[in-house]
Amino acid sequence: MAAVCEVFTLISRNQLGWAMAAASAHLFGSLAMTGLGVWTFKLLRG
Q: What is the DSSP letter of 31?
C-alpha cells in the first residue's frame, strides 16, 4: 500500500518520471523477490 501512496504522491506533484521509476522499481523488486522465493523453495525441497 505504501508503494501506491508514494507513486500517487509523485503523480500529484507532476513528477511523472519519478513516478514511473518508483512504480517500475516496486514491480521489478516484487518479481525478483518472488523468483528468489521460488528458487529458495526448490533448493530446500531438493
A: H
Look up the pTM and report it: 0.79
Q: Which set of grid coordinates corresponds to residue 10?
A: 509523485
Positive or negative, the CA dihedral 11, 16, 19, 23 is: positive
Cβ-contact 19, 7 below 8 angstroms: yes
For residue 15, give the 3-state DSSP assignment. coil
Please classify residue 26 by burial: count the beta carbons closer than 10 Å to its beta carbon, then call 0-12 exposed, 13-18 middle and 19+ buried.
Answer: middle
State residue 1's pLDDT score.
Answer: 78
